[in-house]
Structure formats: C-alpha cells, structure tokens
C-alpha cells in the first residue's frame, strides 16, 4: 500500500508564517483603510478556509514573535520610547487575542532578539552614501531599533516534521515565501504528505517551488 493511500482521508493542517502574512496582508487586502485586529483575523481565517473546501481541518497554526516591549531613546531626538505602548505592540497583542478566539486556531510564539542597536534605514543609507543628504538631515523616522525573530522557523519546521512522522494529516498548507522551509517540505513529501504553498501572490523562490506539490493563493491578487 502506498503512502498516499495510507494518508487518504486524513485532515489538513495550515501553517502560517505570521510576519510574512502581515506584510503581505497590507498589499493583498489594502482598501485605503487601516484594518483593526478583528478584521485582519477574520480576513485571514476566511482566506485560509478556502484551502479546506470539503476536507476536515486539523488545525491552523500561526507562528510569530511578540512585539518589542522595552524602553529606549531615539538617537536622533533623544526622545524616550516605550515600545510596549506603541501602535504596533497594541495591534499585535489585540490580534493575538482575536486569533485564539477562532475555531481550531493555535498560536505559536517564538522570541524577539534585542540587539540593543539603532540602525539607519537602507534607503536612507543609500542617500547618505550618495551625499544627497547629511547626518544632520536625519529625522527620528530614518532609524529603527535592531531586532530579529528567534525560534519561529524552527517551530514551523518541527511541527511539519511532527505532523508528517505521526501521519496526523494528509496535506499541509504553508503560508510563507521563505526558502528556509525547503528541508521541512522535502521531509513531509517523503512521508507522503501533500505540501501546498500559499505565497499570497508573492513571487516564489525557485528552491522552494521545486519542493512543493502545488501553489495556490486564496486571497485577491494585489492590483
């Protein structure tokens, strides 16, 4: 008996790279208004459920890092900033609360690595190098606090491996565009899992496209 027959009739799992989703959401769902967390959660759920069709949903797993919650001083203005009270932090925490209210949605949080540095935005750096602007011309919006996610990719990879080895699902829908998931996708396919990528209309890295079974974006294509 082939693995595809062994897995026939199993439910499907949907894994969402949160940072990727929110970035693409601004392009795919933008209608001239800023959407509140409840609207974003509702639109995401509707988009993802289009993958389910007549099948059974195992679970939607949403991966992200909590927002920065420390205090720091902007190096341009010297102004104190409480990141925990920022609009970004408020939105993200409220969004998490809305997500866990939805049926069969689970939240997987990694950690945010604080490097303790302020960096100049890439486009502004280019302007500086071309002598189009000077250091004295920088504004508080031309710099950002240097942080990066830890533990998100490994959690996604481990869950893909666990779902595959335990034969809990027949299909995995991965909402992402990151080629770092190639090893996990290859493992799942070897175990007989159908791996579908939803890049929300973003161009897919050739390395990732080679190791999936299908490509399907269920949100509206950005204009």
Task: Write up what this structure looks like.
- By secondary structure, the chain is an alpha/beta fold.
- The protein has helices spanning 3-6, 18-28, 37-49, 87-99, 122-129, 152-165, 182-190, 206-209; strands at residues 12-17, 57-64, 71-73, 80-82, 105-109, 111-120, 143-150, 171-175, 194-198, 214-215.
- The longest helix is centred in the C-terminal third of the chain and has 14 residues, at 152-165.
Topology, pairings included?
Elements: H1 3-6, E1 12-17, H2 18-28, H3 37-49, E2 57-64, E3 71-73, E4 80-82, H4 87-99, E5 105-109, E6 111-120, H5 122-129, E7 143-150, H6 152-165, E8 171-175, H7 182-190, E9 194-198, H8 206-209, E10 214-215
Parallel strand pairs: 1-2, 1-8, 2-5, 8-9, 9-10
Antiparallel strand pairs: 3-4, 6-7
Helix pairs in contact: 3-4, 6-7
């Amino acid at each position: 008996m082939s693995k595809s027959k062994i897995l026939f009739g199993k439910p499907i799992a949907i894994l969402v790279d949160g940072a990727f989703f929110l970035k693409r959401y601004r392009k795919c769902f933008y209608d001239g208004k800023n959407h509140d967390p409840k609207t974003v959660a509702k639109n995401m759920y509707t988009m993802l459920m289009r993958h389910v069709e007549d099948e059974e949903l195992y679970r939607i797993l949403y991966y992200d890092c909590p927002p920065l919650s420390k205090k720091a001083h902007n190096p341009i203005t010297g102004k104190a900033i409480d990141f925990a009270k920022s609009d970004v932090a408020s939105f993200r925490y409220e969004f998490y609360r809305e997500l866990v209210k939805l049926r069969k949605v689970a939240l997987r949080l990694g950690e945010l690595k604080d490097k303790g540095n302020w960096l100049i935005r890439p486009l502004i750096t280019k302007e500086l190098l071309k002598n189009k602007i000077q250091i004295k011309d920088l504004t508080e919006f031309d710099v950002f606090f240097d942080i990066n996610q830890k533990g998100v990719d490994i959690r996604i990879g481990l869950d893909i491996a666990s779902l595959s080895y335990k034969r809990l699902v027949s299909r995995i829908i991965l909402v992402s565009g990151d080629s770092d998931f190639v090893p996990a996708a290859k493992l799942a396919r070897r175990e007989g899992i159908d791996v579908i990528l939803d890049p929300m209309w973003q161009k897919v890295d050739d390395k990732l496209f080679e190791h999936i079974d299908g490509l399907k974006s269920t949100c509206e294509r950005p204009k």
